[in-house]
Amino acid sequence: MAGSDIVKSVIAKAERLMDQNRCLRAEAGQLSGQRDKLRAENRRLTERVAELEKRIDVLELREGFASGGNTKQARARVNRLMREVDKCIALLNR
């Protein structure tokens, strides 16, 4: 009798482990989907931030030239942009 109880206990534990495995696999699939969505959103937001930073630079540059009062700052921005352009050209020439 004790042998059949042990077998039943092992079978019950194995079934429980298989159920847990199924649940964990389903949860892993859901989490993987959420991760992919978050990565896509992160990529989109990163691109948006870069776009907005460029717009800010343009607006600040425009403001610097329009006001005429802060020409040093405007020149510094132009010089920085020119260095960026030069770096890009150098990379393209490689």
Polypeptide structure, described:
The chain has 94 residues and is mainly alpha-helical. It has helices spanning 2-67, 71-93. Helix 1 (2-67) crosses helix 2. It starts with a helix and ends with a helix.
Helical content (DSSP H or I, runs of 4+): over 70%
Q: What's the total number of strands?
A: 0
Low-confidence runs: none
Residue-averaged pLDDT: 87
- Percent strand: under 5%
Helix segment tally: 2
**Which structural class is indicated by helix and strand composition?**
mainly alpha
N-to-C span: 81 Å
Q: How would a textbook summarize the main sheet? A: none
Order of helices and strands: HH
Radius of gyration in whole Å, from Cα?
A: 31 Å
Based on CA inertia axes, which overall geometry fits? rod-shaped
Condensed summary:
Helices cover 95% and strands 0% of the residues. By secondary structure, the chain is an all-alpha fold.
Strand and helix layout:
Blueprint: H1 2-67, H2 71-93
Top keywords for this entry?
94 residues; mainly alpha; 2 helices; 95% helix; rod-shaped
